[in-house]
Amino acid sequence: MFIDELKKKVVGKGVKIVFTEGEDSRIQEAAFELWRDDVCVPILLGDPDKIREASAARRMDLSPVEIIDPKHYEDIEPMVQEMIKLRKGKMTEEQVREKILHANYFGTMLVKMGKADGLLGGATYSTADTVRPALQLIKAAPGNKGVSSCFLLTKDIPVANSVSQIIMSDCGIVIEPDADQLTEIAIQAARSMRQFGGDPVVALLSYSTNGSAGGDDVEKMKQVKKNLTDLHVDFPFDGEMQFDCAIVPDVAEKKFPESKVAGHANTFIFPNLSAGNIGYKIAARLGGYEAMGPILQGLNAPINDLSRGCNADEVYDMAIVTATQKLFFE
User: What NCBIfam families would the database entry show (predicted)?
Assistant: First the structure.
């Protein structure tokens, strides 16, 4: 399985991942298994007594796992002062002291201060509540103007017109990106594919293939292609093209025969969030892919979001993804 290959890369590396919702039973179960398998070093946020009592009732020994209650953290003052600097002019000291007691901000500051390598949240928080502190405190990595997201979709046994590992972007952050934003999203998505061991082949998706139809979105994707060409990026890309042309060699031969990408793409860039979000869910629900994400792209550190409907196995897998990103940062 694909996730097992990633797991082999991170086992024993001691990557510290903070989980903002330590009192959630799904997080506790995943943390226990992650610690037991030496996948990462989990840090749980919440009331230590409640977490240990709840986990013991399910016969899980979390005594080796670090549990932090933000309200009783002895070293919080340096974090407060750093956050005041980061939010200067946007938050008062009083507001900072109030916000930092929230697990999403406290966990993000643990990453910022180097006390954790990455963060995983969203089991009960909204995507916005996970992403906002990351944007405010971790911020975009050098060379990135913005932050986007992708979904990593995997299938153990390829079938006709499918590949075992694909990236779809953006499916969770940027609602209506312009051509420049889509250019950056394409570069970030290609980087994500490489983080997870693949060679990116990028398709710029549309309802049109190589000028077969017109419209603003078509022109936008044409501009993205021009931008990527001018930037001399180090991965193959092409567009605009329809999805079937991007993945089916016979269709590509008829619709876009001169393209070196059409027919065998594995990294798909959607013209807007609506298309991307619908697309990855169709792939997961009807195409039999396992979808992991949203995985944030373009940040200075690995911060990732969970679905509020996630189970412990999905938390476990996303921790592996987050730890893999940390190794790539190094």
Answer: PRK09653.1 (NF007233), pta (TIGR00651)
